Amino acid sequence: MLGKNLLMTPAWLPWWTGLALLGLLSEASPVKADPLLDDTTKWSGNFDLRLTIEPTGTEGGVDSGSQFRSEQIPDSHEMITNQADFGHGNDEARHDESGRKRILVQPSPEVLQKVARPLNILFILADDLGYRELGCYGQRLIRTPRIDRLAAEGVKLTRHYAGNAVCAPSRCVLLTGKHPGHAFVRDNRSTPPEGQLPIPAAEQTIAELLQAEGYATGGFGKWGLGGPGSSGEPLKQGFDRFFGYNCQAHAHSYYPGYLWDDDKRIPLTNKPPVPGHAGLAKAADPNDPASYTQFKGTDYAPDRIHAAAIDFLRTNRDRPFFLYYPSTIPHVALHVPDKELEPYLALGWNDPPFTRSRGGYTPHFTPRAAYAAMISRLDTEVGALLDTLDELDLADDTLVIFTSDNGTTHLHDEVDYDFFASVGELRGLKGSLYEGGIRVPCLVRWPGRIEAGTTSDVLSGFEDWLPTVLAACDRAPPPDLTTDGHNLLPALAGQSLEPRAFLYREFGGYGGQQAVWSGRWKAVRQHLRKGPAATELYDLEADPGEATDLAADRKDVVARLEGIMAREHQQSAEFPLLGLDGDATK
Ligand SMILES: [Ca+2]
User: Fold this and answer.
1) Which among 109, 112, 253, 409 is most buried, taking Cβ atoms within 10 Å?
2) Dihedral angle over CA of 211, 126, 172, 436, nearest 10
3) Residues 6 or more apart from 367 whose CB is under 8 A from it?
C-alpha cells in the first residue's frame, strides 16, 4: 500500500536541479513548496534540505507514505525561492488528483532556524529613567556604556513620548496601542490586596497578538495592569510566562518577601523583607552609615528577574519570542547592592545623606551614588541580555527596543535631578505632560534593517510599538483591532515620510492635563480637574524648555490643537477629566 518514490539528484548538482527537472519533465509530479517559505524567502548558507515525497492514490484519498532525503547546499550557494518554480499557487499542484504525485519540499529544522526564522522582539522598559540620564543622551555623571553601545548599533530617537507621565497608564498605551484618550487605564489606581486596575479581557495586547502567531511570550519585571486572578494579569493578557512584581507598590522594595513566578508566589530570602517606605529609627544617628543597614537585604529582586529572563532566552532560542523586560530600575526606593555602589563611592562626590525619618521612601546614606549605581546596574543587565543574544546567535534576528515609561521622578530628596541634569533643558518631571515628564530616551536596533549610529527626530510614542512590532514580524493587526499608533519602521530605517498629524496625551493625575504635539508646536493644559483650563502653546523647535507661552500670539494654532484635544479625548467612566466631562461619576 505504501507507494514510495524518491527523487534522486546527483550529489554534484544543487538540490533544486532535480526539482526543476521534475517540474519540467513530469506533469504528473508537480512540486509543492512548503508554505512556510514564501516567495521572497532568501536561502543561503550551508544547510540540509529535507524532501518529502508523497505519491498519491485515487482522487480524494492519499495512498502514500513518505521518505526523507537530505541534500547539502553548497556554502556559496544563494537563491531566492520562487513559488512558481515549485508549482505552489498552481491549482493543479494543490489538488491531489488521480495519478498525480505530490511532493512537499520541507526545510529541516536547521533551515527554518537559519533561513526562515521569524523575528524576535526584545523590549526593555526602564522605570522613571529621564531623558538625559544615559550617556548617549548627554549624561555626564552616570555610566551607561552598554546602552550607549546599543545606541551606536541602532537608531536613537529624540522625540519619543512615553504612553503617559506615570507607570500604569503608560504601560497600558504600550501594550494596547491606544493613546491615552482611548486607552482603558489612564492613571495609577491600586486594587487591594495587590495590583492595579486590571485591563479588561477584551483588550488585545502586543503579547496576545504575538502569542496567537506562535511566539513564546515572556514578561520579566514589573506589571501594574491587573492584580493576580484579575482579567489584567499577565498570563491572561498574552504572556506564557511572567516573573517579577505584579503590583507597582510592591515593587517599591527591591528586597521584598516574594515575587510572582507565573501565577505562584515564590518567597525570597530577605529576612525580614525591606520595606520600600520607612524612615530612620528615632534614635538613629543620620551621620552614621550603620543607621541605614536596615534598608539592605540579601535577596535582590532584580537578580532573580534578570536570571529568569536570561533563562527564557535560552529556553526559546529555537522559537520566535517576545521578551518584555519592564525593569523596576531606577524607580525609588534607592536599593542597590554595595558592590554596585562602590565604583561611585570611589568618585568622592559631595553626597549628603537622605535622612528622612518618617514617611516616604527609605533613606540612603549616599543617595546620589545610589541612584547612579542603579542606572549602571540596569546598563549591566541590558549588556547581559544583548550578550546572550550574541551567544545564541540571535542578534541579527532580534529587534531590540529600549525606552522608559516616564521621566525622572519629582522626589528631590530621593533623586537629585539637578545634580544629574536628569532631564537637561526640558521642563517638568514624572507626572507632568511638560516634556521632562514624558519625553523619554528610545533606542532601536535591528541589524541589516536599521542603520547603525543614526538619530531620528520622528514624532513618535508608545502607541506606535504595537503596529511597529507587528509590521516587523510581517503580521497585520487583526481587523477588529483599533490602534492609534503608526508603523515606525520606515522612519527608523531613515526614510523621510509625511509628518504625523499629531500625537495626543491626557492624564487625569497631578491635577488633570492634556497635551498635543503637531509639527513644531505643542499645546498643553493643566489643572483640568478644576475646570476648563487655559491652553498654553510652545514652539518646541525654538523653545524646547517650554518657557515662552505663545498662545496669545498664535490663536490659530491654539484653535487647531484644541480641536484635536476635543476630538481625541473619549470620555472614560473610570478616569473622567472633570474639567472636560463634568462629573461623570454623578
Ligand atoms: Ca514609572
Assistant:
1) 253
2) -150
3) 334, 351, 352, 353, 354, 413, 414, 415, 416
Selection from 281, 293, 283 nearest residue 341 by Cα: 293
Question: For 99, which DSSP code?
Answer: T
Separation between Cα atoms, residue 586 and residue 94, nearest integer Å? 62
- If pLDDT is split at 50, 70 and 90, which confidence band does 59 have? very low
DSSP 376: H
Q: Specify the residue for cell string 539592605.
A: 296
Neighbours of 347 (CB within 10 A): 11
Distance CA 115, CA 34 (A): 13
Rounded to the nearest angstrom, the distance between the alpha carbon of 226 and the centre of ligand 1 is 16
CA of 569 to the centre of ligand 1 (A): 23
List, for residues 108-135, the tens digit of each pLDDT value: 455 444 445 799 999 999 999 999 999 9
How far, in whole angstroms, is CA 89 from its chain's centroid? Answer: 37
Tell me: pLDDT of 43 over 60. Answer: no
**Element housing 215 (H / E):** none
Residue ranges of domains in the chain, CATH in brackets: 15-114 (no CATH), 120-278+301-346+389-492 (3.40.720.10), 503-581 (3.30.1120.10)
Q: Which three cell numbers stand for residue 71?
A: 541534500
User: How far apart are the C-alpha atoms of 440 and 438, rounded to whole Å?
Assistant: 6
Closest CA to 513 of 491, 496, 530: 530
**DSSP per-residue string spanning 47-96:** -EEEEEEEE--STT---------EEEPPTT-EEE--HHHHTTT-HHHHS-
Query: In the structure grid, which three cell numbers stand for residue 574, read together?
Result: 473610570
CA 158 to chain centre: 17
> Residue 342 class from Cβ within 10 Å (0-12 exposed, 13-18 middle, 19+ buried)?
exposed
Residue 133 alpha carbon to ligand 1 centre in Å: 14
CA of 169 to the centre of ligand 1 (A): 10
DSSP H/E element including 382: helix 367-391
Closest CA to 404 of 147, 82, 583: 147
Mean pLDDT of all residues in 33-44? 38
Is-contact 295 364, C-beta < 8 A? yes
Residues 532-544: what's their mean pLDDT? 95
How far apart CA 353 and CA 475 sit, in angstroms, is 52
Q: How far is the CA of 489 from the centre of ligand 1 (A)?
A: 26
Quick one: pLDDT at residue 583?
Answer: 59
29: left (phi over 0), alpha (psi -120 to 50) or beta: beta
Residue in 145, 143, 151, 142 with CA at minimum distance from that of residue 403: 151
CB 370 within 8 A of CB 334: yes
562 alpha carbon to ligand 1 midpoint, in Å?
28
In the block, cell 514578561 appears at 219
Distance from residue 67's CA to the centre of ligand 1 (Å): 56
The residue count for the chain = 586
Nine-digit cell at 307? 536570571
Beta strands at 48-55 and 42-44: parallel, antiparallel or unpaired: unpaired
